[in-house]
Structure formats: structure tokens, C-alpha cells
Amino acid sequence: MKKKLAKLLVAALILSVLGGLAPAQAAGGTVKRIGLIYGSNAAAAVQLTNVKGSGFRLGYVDEQGRFFSLAKTGEKDIQVLITQNLYLNSKGGFGYSSDGSRGAVGCYHVQLPTAYPDFDSALAAAQQVEGGFVAWIDGTYSVRMGAYTKKDDAVAAAAACAVAGAALGETSGYGYSVVAAGTTRVLFQFDANVAGETGALAVRPGLEDGADAVTQLNGGDQYRGDFRFERINGGASTVVNLVDLETYIKGIVPYEMTTSWPLEALKAQAVCARTYSMSSSRQHGSDHFDLCNTTHCQAYRGVERAGTNSDRAVDETAGQLIYYNGKPVTDAVYYSSNGGASEDAKNVWGSEVGYLKGKLDPYEADIASVAGNYSWSKTYTAAELKERFHAKNYACDDIVDLTTKLSATGNVIELKIVDAAGKSYTISKADSIRTLLGLNSIRFTVTTSGSAQGQANGGYEVAGAESPVPLDGLYALGGDGKSAPVPSQSYIITGDGVKALEPVRSAADVTGVSYTFTGTGWGHSVGMSQWGAYAMAKRGYTYLDILNFYYTGITVQ
Description:
single chain; globular; 10-stranded mixed sheet; alpha+beta; 8-stranded mixed sheet
């Protein structure tokens, strides 16, 4: 595999010298690889549309990040298909089903015998035959015809072809066909037959370097930069946006904050986003890209929402990162609002981080009436709450008591429940508590309605007692005539044999009991509050003031 790759790269360099290929690097320095379509969403067909700029160049990106152009098309709208049998549906999309199809792009072709030195000469030859298109297969340009769904049909077509030497043409599990959108007309076929990133197809919007190209993906979000299509393990396409760092940040800021927010708040967000994006802990190595486009990493939706204000915030902080002890921080985390106080990373996630310390936040009071979802309340019945605990593998009985422990800043950092069997469970990480309970933040209080008293200590029926009695304090008379405390695990002799003594449990004891969680804030509360940044900027603080308030002992450079 490595030998094949080396041959391809040597061929690429030779073609580059001869003028057949044009290596180019994305402008702007550092290039980020952002996953747009991947994992369970990997796609068999993906559409790219010129919104700004014209046409596309098709090729690959080498290990140094250089783009090599292998082919080009003036089409404004293309679809990139994996080389399997795909059928065009009535809406112009492609899928695996032939039901109601308007045609197909199959994975079997007729290949003509001649090899060509470059794309232009291969294209000229392809235009001389019906259904002809240029294919770049393992470093060689050739001409293919047709796209059959059955191998026998392609073999028969090759035998009937007027061109001597025509033969069956196939592709590997890593190949791609590029077609004019909404048609079965193949424009170009690419197959490096190399597993991994080096066998991926790259698409660069625009026919010339330096063009300000904007591309729409699948009729939705719009992006600058290049696109890489990769069939990891020979499957459907993982689609990655290759974009320079500052352009990437311009696609984050307007989705994490509103472009109309104060400039200093947007600048603080830009520095956080840039710093966060440089963290190796956030990378999706197994997916072959750096960061995804969701809030798992950072919300990135391209250029559509970007405005003068948000772009200015990025430009005026270009290259700036947050440092702690002389090194860029690895967790420049942020969230919507904290409800009145941020929190130590240790109390939220379990690990001590010097620059992520909790503190009372006096600024959020300014925005409490305007921030979305700032004040909230959620109620669970005892049965619903038990279900949530069971879903997280806590095998508790009916919950009869629930208490919380607060941090120095008043956030909930520990939750303890006691069930009807007298067992207790403690959850000690604040974010685990928030997730377990499905709450908006870690700043909340709990009120209980109804009553479940008498069950918290695991009661047992005792003759003459009006209600269940706990084992604690009870004594039993042994065979030697001496009394001893009843152990927590006791057994009784019944008509069916010896059985463990079980406490009285009755769902009726918690019927009507409910727990209401009332709180403020939205998010994990570690690092920068976005609404707090807004409030500080409104008061006249700079982005440096904002960052130094929410992150402890840091510098920005």
C-alpha cells in the first residue's frame, strides 16, 4: 500500500513539473479538517453547488496538505458518488434503490486502451466517443465509456466497441464518480485504490486560485475552502471541509453568538474558539479529521450567518490564543450562561484544571430577563425519576429521599438518593448530575411534593408495630438463649425453605410524590459564559477583561 502511494506521489510530482498538475496550498496558513458528514451519516452521494465562483477542480491532497488538481469542470452543480450502483430518483438525488429511478450510474465500464499524459488530452479523446469520460486510475489517465449496473453488460459493450483493445473497466472500493447534478452524465472518475486519507478525492471550488469561492453542500449550509471525500474502509463518503483557521473561526462565531452582539463579546468568543480548535484532545483521529461541525467540538455552519461584526471580531484577534503557564490552553471551554456562578472543572468533570476555577458571576444579573432559557423548572414523579436512574444503570428501588451538596459558589456538585430498600447512591460529578437529571444547568434547588416517609431506612413488618420498623435497634434471640442485634442481611424459614428477609416495599408509598428542580443558567458552567461576556461588553469591558475574568491566571497573545 505504501509503495503504491509512493508511486502515485512520484507520478504527481513529475506531472507537476510537466504542467499536468498544479499543486497549491490553501491560503491563510494553518488548515483545519472539519468533519461535515461522517460516521453513521456517511453518504453515498453528495452534492456541491457554486454559490460564489465558477466550476470545480478535482484531485487529491498530499500528506503536506498540498492540493493537486487532476481534472476540472465548468459545471456549477456536481454530485460526487461512490463507485457502486446508484440510481437517480425523481428528486435528483441518488440512492441504492432502483424503484422509480430515472437512470443509474453503475460501477462497470468500457475502458479504452490508450493512456494519456494529462487531463486535457484525455478529455479531448473522451469527447470523441459516446458516453466517454476521463478516468484517473492509480496515477494513469484513460478514457472510459458507459456506467453499467451489470458486469455482463459492460463486457458485452466492450466486445461490441469499435475501438480495438476496449475492455472491462472496474473500480476499487475507494473510487468516486463525479457527475453533473441531477443527471447520470459522468464527468470524471477517480480511483487511487489506496485505503486511508491519501486515497481520498479532493474538490476545490473555482477554476482559478485566489477566487473567493463559496459552495453549498447538499442544498444547505455554505462553506469556503476545499472538500475531501474519503471512503473509510471502503464504505460511504466521509466529507471533510479543508479550510484555513481564520475562515473556520468566522464560521463558528456567528453560530455561537449573534452577530449583533457587542464587538468585544464576539472577540472573546473568537479567541476562545480559536484556542479550542487548536487542542489535540478534540481531534477525531479515527474519522480522519480534526474537529466535527457540531457542539461536540464547536458549532460550525460555514459562512451564511457571518456578518461584518463577527468577521471583524475574528480579524481583530487574528492568531490570538489563550495561554496558561506559557502554553496554549487545551480547554478554552464555554457555555451559554451559568445562572450566577461558574464552577471548578474538578467539580464538574473530575479533573483539576488551573485556569478553570469557579467564581461568583455578578454580570449575568444584567441579562437574566433577556437570555433564552435562563430560568427553568423541571418536575419528575418518583416513578419517572427512578426510570431515569435505571436508564443510567443505577438499580435503585423507589426513591424516597434526595439531597444535594453545593460548592463554594452555590452550584450542585453532589447528588445523593436513598431508595425504599434503604440503599443510597451518590453522584459526585456536576455534569453527570445535570445529564442524569436532564437539567439545563448545575445551579438549582430541589423541592419535594407528597410524602414517602417511613421507607427511607428500609422498614420491616414487626408484630404489634403500627408501621414498618428498621432492622437497626432490633434484637433476635439465638439458640443459645442470648440476644444479638439483627444483621443487615437476615434470613427467615418459610414453607418454601430459607429466604432472605426483605423490607416492606410498596409503590403506593411513593404515589403522588414528585421532585421539582428549579434553576438558572444553561450549560456546564465551566469557563466563559457567553451571556456573561455579552453583559460585560455592554458595561464597557474589553474582550481581554472578559477572558481574564472567566479564565484564571491566563494571558492572551
